[in-house]
């Protein structure tokens, strides 16, 4: 039995309600990255009729299947989204939430055996979310003594460089080595320094995906996607189909973010190194620089989707 693309997207939105609430009348039935969630998501990928997909849809499906191999399943609470807030707002059963929070702890402990640790940015985000809710005291206590990994990029995770490469291949739409992309970005960045404060002002805790935000303001037609992280928009397919002109300031900002993206996820830059590099390229406040780096850390490679347009 196969399912249509539209049906797959609808079902993905149903199981991802806690990650990206999209269907106001659809009840929460599942929390992310439990075994049940992973089984249901895998079934959607496997039963989607790939014979009727266009190239952009097929590329995304293959990309999402590849993502199943990597450590994502150990991090049951993705730091880019306040799962607890979403679950409470939509009236999910208290016992289900409590059990899920305990499972988050269990998975983080299990992850240590495979040398998978949260980054300091992820840890900080989770602590911020928990500080705003009365629930999750066990997780708060656990995170109080949790030691994050030293870096903030994917490179430090098991198979992290391969994981990052798979993301680059999708968002850039072809297989290119990170070192070649970095050389290309830095060549175009040469001698550019701009005041980017006005372009960074719209960043908030709930809007850290800079590439998605820019695409939504520039492209009238958003190509539908299956990835909750990109709000069910197929970013590379949308950009390829979208006619827009970037100002020199916008180009410099995007290139600077690409440099930081490749730096932290592939070359192993620290938060400090990323901050110094970004502020050498752009005139930003400390908070704006941190927000941009945080977004790049939580949404690896997505900003690279603009490189073919620059």
Short account of what is shown:
The chain is mainly alpha-helical and 310 residues long. The protein contains 15 helices and 2 strands.
Task: Give the termini distance in whole angstroms.
Answer: 43 Å
> What global shape is seen?
globular
* Strand residue content: under 5%
Counting DSSP H or I runs of 4 or more residues, the number of helices is 15
Helix fraction? 55-70%
Main sheet: strand order: 1-2
Number of domains: 2
Structural class: mainly alpha
Main beta-sheet annotation: 2 strands, parallel
Spans of at least 5 consecutive residues whose pLDDT stays below 50 are 202-206
Report Rg.
19 Å
Report on the structure:
The N and C termini lie far apart (43 Å). The chain is globular, with a radius of gyration of 19 Å. Helix 3 (55-67) packs antiparallel against helix 8, helix 9 (178-189) packs antiparallel against helix 13 (248-267) and helix 13 packs across helix 15. It has 15 helices and two strands. The chain is 55% helix and 1% strand. It has helices spanning 5-15, 35-47, 55-67, 83-89, 94-113, 120-131, 137-144, 160-172, 178-189, 197-200, 210-218, 235-240, 248-267, 271-281, 286-298, and strands spanning 194-195, 282-283. It is an all-alpha fold. The protein folds into two domains: 5-149, no CATH class; 155-309, no CATH class. The protein has a two-stranded parallel ribbon.
